[in-house]
Amino acid sequence: MALRRSDGQPDTGAIRVLLAEDMELLRTALVSVISEEEDMEVVADLTCDHQVVAVAQRLRPDVAVVSADVPEKDGLSTVRELRRRLPDCQVVALTTSRPPGLIKRLLATNIPGLIDKNAPAARLLAAIRGVARGGTMIDTNLVMAALSAGRNPFTPRELHVLRLAAAGASGPEIAKELSLSQGTVRNYLSNAMNKAGARTRIDAIRIATESGWL
Fold first, then answer.
1. 168, CA 20 to 30 Å: which among 11, 34, 68, 122?
2. Do 7 and 124 form a contact (C-beta atoms < 8 A)?
3. What CATH number does the domain located at 15-147 have?
């Protein structure tokens, strides 16, 4: 009788990989590259959406390779949920060096694998094997990109005001929420804009978010 894993599938001894990538051409290429390895098998390939965690919970892969920088989709939340709900599933995130704030947040999840999308395929394969054995595979250039954003220049109050503004609150609403005068709120926003080198509140929020400060 063949040994079976918790998901009911035969245990072949290969590293079971779930792949989440929105770009179909890239996803197809990665499936082909991974499937050619004798010690790996792709158990699922899908786009980066809310189904990733559900599919991973059902199939219980050894490694999940997730594209973390998909526009208009929160790859970071997917990584966090995989780390929280499936601690035995090792995660390798694929991203580029921009924005550095995303890299900072990914590193903050204690993710075992973080690979530059511009790296050769052999690097990804090595990362899959490495994290499957319990190791850590983090591309140095991504760490350097995260460090390039510098230290957070904002005070706690400026950050609080920026977060409320980023959530869509108006000046009067922020003032009411924080029990401040509207003039004080404007001063905090002005200080934040100056520190970020931004011309507008929206630019300040964007810069702070991309730099991992917000």
1. 68
2. no
3. 3.40.50.2300
Region(s) of the chain under CATH 3.40.50.2300: 15-147
Under DSSP, is residue 91 helix (H, G, I), strand (E, B) or coil? strand
The residue among 9 and 187 whose pLDDT is bigger is 187
pLDDT at position 5, please? 47
Q: 65 near 44, Cβ under 8 Å?
A: no
Flag whether the pTM goes above 0.70: yes
Q: Which two tokens stand for residue 12?
A: 């072949």
131: phi then psi, degrees, rounded to nearest 5? -70, -30
What is the C-alpha separation between 152 and 196, in angstroms, rounded?
10
Read off the tokens for 184. 């004080």
154 three-state secondary structure: coil
Nearest to 85 by CA among 55, 127, 53: 53
Residue 57 CA to residue 40 CA, distance in Å, equals 19
